[in-house]
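hey so i finally got around to running the thing on that chain from the lab meeting. sorry it took forever, my laptop kept dying and i had to restart like 3 times. anyway pasting the input first so we r on the same page abt which one it is
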Amino acid sequence: MKEYEASSVRQRAKIEERDGKRAKANAQKAPKNSGNNLQIGWIVCFVLFTFTIGILMYQSRETPTNYQKEVNRECDEETGQCIAIVDYTRDFGKTWHRGIFYVNETTFDFEKMYEKKVGAEAILKCPANADAPEGCVPDHGRLSWPYVATMAIMPFVVGALHHPTQMQQRTQSALVIGMGGGTLDMFLHTKTPNLNITIYELDPMVVQMADKWFGTVEDSTRRTIVEDGIFGIEKAAENGEQFDLVALDACEMFSELICPVSVFSDEKILQKIKAILKPTGAFAVNVLMQDEKQEDKYVAEQKRKLLNTFPICLHTSFVRELAHVFVCFHTKINVSGKHAKLSKEWEKKREELAKEFGIDELLTQYRIS
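ok and heres what got predicted. didnt touch it at all, straight out
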């Protein structure tokens, strides 16, 4: 029995010795295998990286992500100011845009203009798989800048404009001051063809460029008058004419406060704007400044002037944009708690209309106060 136990002990010792040698051998091989696996991993990553870069370079060759091309420029010999038409894409050619920008004769910082939304922009409707904007035309049923979408939709939200399906021929009217590329008024004209729209634009060159490059139209419910918007407001006030919407997007591109032009913030002019609004009408104005450091100052200043004239104004601001939109109207809300209730109703209506008008993606990052 003792001999058997001794034999078992020796056998276990041999097994343990054998297992120890195997473990040691595996430990010596492990770094080599690990190194091989690491090397293979790096090779796979390099191949995938090279393949991805190749695809991106090929796409960039066809439709670069930041492609832009100035297709036309017209200059005023007296002032030296020019209007440039630029076609561009920011998403590998999935969507093409056409912008109209004020520039001077020698310099044009497109990226700066684009970033600040200084100018006007239209989305282009292009043939399938278009690699360049040739053959594309402006799509008046779409918008690309949140502030324009807000100016377009808020009059419907607060009830100043009727829903397109409820608006009868020429029963409602809009006065638009400042044309740009006609983006706002052509969107309204497309969505609500029965809305009677009058546009005042001071610069005849803007009107010509908008007609040529943005496809603006003149018909029974849309007309452009080449004249100072102040004249249009004063004329309407003298004649007792009233509108369901007055939209102000008149700008001085090289001043600290770009929009609105300072004269439109004068108390007497604001009173006349109020006078030409119907009792249920709305006044929408774009406020834009050059420097974000001056943003709070100019917004507060404009808000104060507007509230000195109108009982209530809705203020919309946007994330990562300097543009602000104020929509003011006659309605005075005195009942405690009613303002909050109306705000919720307006917010719900805004979401519904934005989706219906196809501009809901533009209005995802904003604040209404």
